[in-house]
Specification:
Radius of gyration: 23 Å
CATH superfamily of the largest domain: Cytochrome c-like domain
Number of domains: 2
Order of helices and strands: HHHHHHEEHHH
Number of helices: 9
Bound molecules: heme C
Number of strands: 2
Oligomer: single chain
Shape: globular
CATH architecture of the largest domain: Orthogonal Bundle
Structural class: mainly alpha
Strand order of the largest sheet: 1-2
CATH class of the largest domain: Mainly Alpha
Length: 202
């Protein structure tokens, strides 16, 4: 009898803990005030539709800010959306995933590109300092190193002496067939700054 009472207490405690956990989880995932407001009024109509899919599907578990505050290449977004889609409870079909990637890529090349620190460079000029930040935010160090920082499997030290700016651009957006470098979809303005940085690596 005593044992039964004890196990009841244990069960009650566990249930209590579960309920408490549930409440915390809801508080964490249920309410997510977004700081970033997207105004789609001036957006092309297909992007407006893509935004609606994004706002609807990607706010289920966390805020839209989780995506709006990050910078990724189009491929990076495709990977992330794929990762979210793989969670069965996300209920995102392939067409919706495609629309979401479309919106995120547009947001990247328009709103976020405009927000990037106005470098000391004049319009039309490139900035190696901005390029260095982009090098980090596009995740290049996950595969490359500079001065020993990052993935030393492929060091980019001295690349500025070996390749011209034009060659570097091509290597990034259209690597030679058979290369294990992924083709990166990067807006032209970012690419110019990125290459401006790489050419300083002498
Ligand atoms: C079923 C719940 C769920 C849905 C729906 C969902 N996410 Fe997530 N998301 C998560 C979880 C859990 C994490 C944290 C774990 C991880 O990163 O894999 C996360 C993490 C992220 C991150 C990483 C945030 C960071 O700080 O690095 C991004 C970006 C993201 N989600 C974007 C999206 C986008 C875009 C969508 C819509 C396609 C989406 N999420 C829909 C559950 C979800
Ligand atoms: C998933 C890993 C990966 C990522 C991410 C990546 N690279 Fe690469 N990159 C490589 C590999 C591997 C090579 C070597 C190519 C080969 O084997 O032919 C390479 C080659 C290069 C080269 C040519 C180097 C040479 O010596 O000819 C440049 C330049 C370059 N990457 C720049 C970048 C930049 C800039 C970024 C970020 C925008 C980036 N890479 C992101 C894996 C990656």
């Amino acid at each position: 009898m005593r044992r039964i009472v004890q196990s009841r207490t244990v069960i009650a405690t566990c249930l209590g803990a579960l309920v408490a956990f549930g409440a915390t989880a809801t508080a964490q995932f249920g309410s997510h005030p977004d700081e970033i407001k997207i105004d789609t009024r001036s957006y092309p109509s297909d992007v407006k539709i893509s935004y609606k899919v994004f706002a609807n599907k990607c706010s289920e578990c966390h805020g839209l800010d989780s995506s709006l505050k990050q910078t990724r290449s189009a491929q990076g977004w495709r990977d992330d959306v794929g990762r979210m889609q793989a969670m069965a409870s996300s209920h995102i079909n392939d067409r919706e995933a495609e629309a979401i990637v479309k919106f995120l890529a547009y947001d990247e090349s328009h709103r976020k590109a405009a927000l990037r620190p106005a470098s000391s460079a004049k319009p039309g000029e490139t900035s190696a300092a901005t390029g260095k930040q982009l090098y980090e935010s596009y995740g290049c160090p996950s595969c490359h190193s500079v001065a020993g920082l990052g993935n030393t499997a492929s060091a980019l030290d001295g690349i500025g002496s070996k390749k011209s700016a034009e060659e570097l651009k091509r290597l990034i957006v259209a690597p030679p067939a058979g290369s294990s470098m992924p083709a990166m979809e990067i807006p032209a303005k970012d690419l110019d700054n990125l290459v401006a940085y790489l050419t300083t690596l002498k």
